[in-house]
Amino acid sequence: MPEFEPKIVAFCCRYCAYTAADLAGSMRLQYSPNIRVVEMPCSGTIEHGLILNAFEKGVDGVYIAGCNLGDCHFLKGNVRAIKRVAAVKKILDEIGLGGQRLEFFHIPASEGTKFAKVANEMTERIRQLGPSPLNKNAAGNAQKEGGQTV
Amino acid sequence: MSNLSKLQQVLDSDQFAVTAEIGPPKHSSSEGIRHHAEMMRDYVDATNITDNQTAIVRMSSIAAGAHVLNSGIEPIIQMTCRDRNRIAIQSDLLGAYSLGMCNVLCLSGDHQKFGNHPTAKNVYDVDSMQLIENLRRMRDEKVFFCGEAIKEAEPQFFIGAVANPFADPFEFRVDRLEKKVNAGAQFIQTQCIFDMERFERFMEMVRERGLDQRVHILAGVTPMKSWKAASYMQNNVSGMIVPNELVERLKNAEDPKREGLDICIEQIKYIKEKVKGVHGVHIMAIAWEEVVPEIVEKTGLYPRPKVG
Amino acid sequence: MIVAQQKPISEIAQMISDCKKVLFLGCAGCVTVCLSGGEKETDVLASAIRIKRTLENNPLEATTFTCTRQCDPEYIAGIDNLVKDVDAIVSLACGVGVQYLAERFMDKWVVPAMDTKFAGGSVVHGLWEEKCGLCGECILHRTGGICPIIRCSKSILNGPCGGSQYGKCEINKDIDCAWQLIYDRMKALGKLDKLMEIQPLKDWSKSRDGGPRKSIREDVMIDE
């Protein structure tokens, strides 16, 4: 059986984490290939529905990466993102998917290494948790459902 | 029929009145109440019968009042606005009067949040002010709350109300007392007094407006068993002021119960001798009814005047 | 506005546990303003319950829509086609909306996703407070613009009671004593003498105690 490779969506603020991802690339840093980066105008543009949507589509983990506290380009977008992530974690716990599959990280633009570190850490965390039960393509789940893969 | 209130006779003849309090039990036996009534009989002019105090279900104040009356002591029926609408209040009080009870104390009542049924619905159809006014109209104008005539045997209530000099806004407390007097209150029992200085300021304002000439004011006192009880009241009971010195005095006492009694006795003597305009004392010995006779004796208020 | 709050997801899920196809219906009125039953909240709730049901091996087909107002027959008339083949409608409107839906769609299982709480307004973004007791006969002109019917825990009309201390209500230190507020305002307006008038017994028949109420404006009614 092939090892489970998590699929993780990283919603990254353009002013920090997304730039840090570029930097990580320029620095030739190796980081987990399981991350799908989505560029956001600000981490504060994340919505509860968007996160739940990603999980419904079958991703195994989601994280939102924003600026350090006090550094938000729009002043308080990251503070709002943190609160929303906490609220969605609660929903995930309540419906049985588990809040650990979701996280918020601060990744400043200048920290390519932190970007890589977070990507690796989150991949490892989700790998430990196993595939999301909603992920139809994951090796384990596909077998449970009679070997169908899409 | 016409019941004559002994309490009213004592007060109207300018004698210093003594009332106490009996809390009905959380069960259906009258034994305890009758015991307390018999014990206090010769020492007080009347006793309040609390109405589900702190919103904890207890025997009805009117039923308990009947037991007290049978034990030879005059009850003051407490009637809160929390549990009954205007229909039930009138009905219950007509019943009480028919059983020989004429003293009624009108109160808002503690919110049910504090009791053993915090999920109950409250009523507050009528407030204490309106209750006073409408009981007076029942008696003087012979009408029900709705205005309809009471064709015969209108109840001749002796109407009481409460005042809390320790609640806020302080300046308005005397206004509200005046409002109650205007509404028809004939006697007033105050919240337990621990902060004597504030009570004296309150009474000064009362005298300035001549309210002590229009209503009988009974000062409320409570003997405390321990510094913990005092500290609890200080911190957890809204509308109470318990000075630190009092808590400390109980804390440092060798025999706190003795000290608690002594404090209460000192307070009554002080009020009786020094605070003008006070016409009596209301002793609230909460779950400590047996000390009432001693307090009355040691304050020189025994024997009680014979009236009627 | 009417302020409502969503019930726990598990409770809502329980109400429709035996349904296969459900319409989650938001309302663009008050519950959108109080951020509990608008378009966004409707999508989130539908999504959450869909995930929950998938995890329980009992997949749910959930569709969403948000009406302009659920408390107006003309706006729910437009959703007939969305309702046609669902087993249930989960309404994210206040209790009024739920009832209008139940009346119109007689053969459908209509359930409330919300607890309708009070008539109030917002203090700051994310915090709403009760202001009106809907008693049917306003007395705010007598109480300095502060409603004792609903903001006093005992609805006292001749307050404050003996439990008012340091400006707070006896039942909770986080609740302002309405009568302290009334006193302060009347004092500032130089109208303390008004508080000496005994407010008479209230006519509660104008409130819910008189039975369900109606409000009529004949001149705008359309004759058929």
Supply database-style keywords:
heterotrimer, A: about 150 residues, alpha/beta, four-stranded parallel β-sheet, 5 helices, 4 strands, about 40% helix, about 15% strand, globular, B: about 300 residues, TIM Barrel, eight-stranded parallel β-barrel, 8 strands
Report on the architecture of this protein.
The complex is a heterotrimer of chains A (150), B (308) and C (224). Chain A has a 4-stranded parallel beta sheet, with helices on both faces. Chain A has 150 residues and is α/β, with parallel strands linked by helices. Chain A has a single domain, classed as Rossmann fold (3-Layer(aba) Sandwich), CATH 3.40.50. Helix content of chain A is 41%, strand content 15%. In chain A, 44% of the residues are buried. In chain A, strand 1, helix 1 (17-26) and strand 2 (35-40) form a beta-alpha-beta unit. The longest helix of chain A is centred in the middle third of the chain and has 19 residues, at 77-95. In chain A, helix 1 packs across helix 4. Chain B has 11 helices and 8 strands. In chain B, strands 1-2-3-4-5-6-7-8 form an 8-stranded parallel barrel, surrounded by 7 helices. In chain B, helix 2 (31-40) packs across helix 3 (61-70) and helix 3 (61-70) packs parallel to helix 4. Chain B is globular, with a radius of gyration of 18 Å. Chain B starts with 5 loop residues before the first helix and ends in a 10-residue tail after the last helix. With 224 residues, chain C is of the alpha/beta class. Chain C has 2 domains: 2-118, 3-Layer(aba) Sandwich (Rossmann fold), CATH 3.40.50; 134-200, no CATH class. Chain C is built from 8 helices and 9 strands. Chain C has helices at residues 9-15, 30-33, 39-55, 73-76, 80-83, 95-104, 148-151, 178-188, and strands at 2-6, 21-27, 61-67, 88-91, 109-112, 114-124, 127-132, 168-169, 172-176. Chain C has a 4-stranded parallel beta sheet, with helices on both faces. In chain C, strands 1-6-7 form a 3-stranded antiparallel beta sheet. The two termini of chain C are 32 Å apart. The model of chain C has no long low-confidence stretch (mean pLDDT 97). Chain A binds chain C through residues 47-49, 52-53, 55-56, 91, 94-97, 133-134, and chain C through 8-10, 40, 43-44, 47-52, 54-56.
